[in-house]
Amino acid sequence: MKDSKIFDLIDAEKQRQREGLELIPSENYVSKEVLEAMGSVFTNKYSEGYPGFENLDGSDDDVLAANPANHRYYGGQQNTDKVERLAIARARRLFHADHANVQPHSGAQANNAVYNAWLQPGDTVLGMDLGHGGHLTHGSPVTQSAKIYNFVAYGTDPETGEINYDELAKLAIQHQPKIILVGYSAFSKIPDFDRIAKIGEEIPDCLLMADMAHVAGLIAGGVHPNPLDHGFHVMTTTTHKTLRGPRGGLILSRGTVGNPLKKPEHTLENIPTLIDRSVFPGTQGGPLMHVIAAKAVAFHEAEQVSFQNYARDVVSNAKALADTLITHGFKLIGGGTDNHLILVDMKSSFGIDGKLMEVMMDKVGLTLNANAIPNDTLPPFRPSGIRLGTPAITTRGMNRGEMVKIGNLMRRIAEICVEINGGKAENEFASELAAIREEVRQMAEIFPVPSI
Ligand code: DSN
């Protein structure tokens, strides 16, 4: 018997996604093929261990033709080995990596696996402050890793929105971290990877790690520098944000790839194998082979010229939206954006908090999230900022004209928020909100979601 409760909710979610516009910068719409691979029979298979890592350098056909012995703990891997090897080969090509581990279930799992591969309890990691745009897994005290390792935070410059490189260098010398971590979920600039790598080279045994979850698709599309080309040893990412694949994680690394069954020496050169052993059996059990199949499909899509165009459009759309918002009096952290993401200080722009804006935007089918801004004086659940971006609406084929329209609608919503904040009842704006809702629905209809 079909579970109608759940399937009705799936239908309702399809309608929500179809009729609204997704502005959360970490979300996207996958292709039909990615969706199909995720819903495939590979979900029935256990594949603990790894496929063989030999002959991963050539084309997809070369990779399929080779059939090296695997390192698995279960039989029946004729197809799973090929799927995982294709995923690895494609990821290596996309990101110029010596090795790819495609098994992490999420970005958090990927980060924890790298920590576990390289650090001893008590070792120091230098990462970006959560309040300045860093990520929870980069040392927030509420996480498990913060109980195990010693995280020290660097911040951003309030004037420019850039990383405070002088502070980073000073903290690195002072704390001698075993990992310098560059990565973020609310930062709209492009890090100077060379400068950070230079700082890291002065610290003994320091692993340079980049968590590029937000911008991996921009890197794959060639519109953002790749940290692995600038002296970094490891790059982690999720696969579902700008990269437009299934929900999951990925670890890319430089170094020599060894047999995962043999414990290698603890050196930076051996980081690929240290990571493999840390993912399985260190921190995870069986890989999700249906998700790995979908990752492989997404990597194939990202290798196409059309994806390079997509990445370019994500960035130009973000700039167009940012410019429109600035014209309307929105104050952007860092004064604009260089990637896919825009962080706005709603408090200093309009005297309202980010949560009110999030809630009112939701009512008209425009989804974004309230977000802390650097040195926020408001609490995390009702912070001063909002965070938005263009990966999903660019997937729908939207362009400059639509960015201007969305920016104009946001101006009107912000004005309504100001009035509500001043004491007016929300229902006084019911007909105006309904009209904006309809305008959003019409835009959504012209630019359908590819997979639904
Ligand atoms: N939750 C993700 C984001 O929205 O940026 C980060 O993990």
Could you describe the 3D structure shown?
The chain is α/β, with parallel strands linked by helices and 452 residues long. The protein folds into 2 domains: 32-302, Type I PLP-dependent aspartate aminotransferase-like (Major domain) (Aspartate Aminotransferase, domain 2), CATH 3.40.640.10; 313-446, Aspartate Aminotransferase, domain 1 (Alpha-Beta Complex). Helices cover 44% and strands 12% of the residues. It contains 17 helices and 15 strands. The chain has helices at 4-19, 32-38, 60-65, 78-95, 107-118, 144-148, 165-175, 193-201, 216-220, 271-283, 289-302, 305-327, 346-350, 354-363, 391-395, 400-421, 430-446; strands spanning 21-22, 49-50, 71-72, 99-101, 124-128, 150-154, 179-183, 207-211, 234-238, 249-253, 331-332, 341-345, 366-367, 369-371, 385-389. It has a 7-stranded mixed sheet with strand order 4-10-9-8-7-5-6, sandwiched between helices. Strands 11-12-15-14 form a 4-stranded antiparallel sheet. Helix 2 (32-38) runs antiparallel to helix 11 and helix 7 packs parallel to helix 8 (193-201). The longest helix is centred in the last third of the chain and has 23 residues, at 305-327. The protein is globular, with a radius of gyration of 22 Å. The model has no long low-confidence stretch (mean pLDDT 97). The structure holds D-serine. D-serine binds at residues 26, 107, 135, 185.
Please give the domain count. 2
The CATH architecture name of the largest domain reads: 3-Layer(aba) Sandwich
> Roughly how many Å apart are the termini?
24 Å
* Total number of beta strands: 15
CATH class category name of the largest domain: Alpha Beta
Biggest pleated-sheet summary:
7 strands, mixed
Strand order of the largest sheet: 4-10-9-8-7-5-6
Number of helices: 17
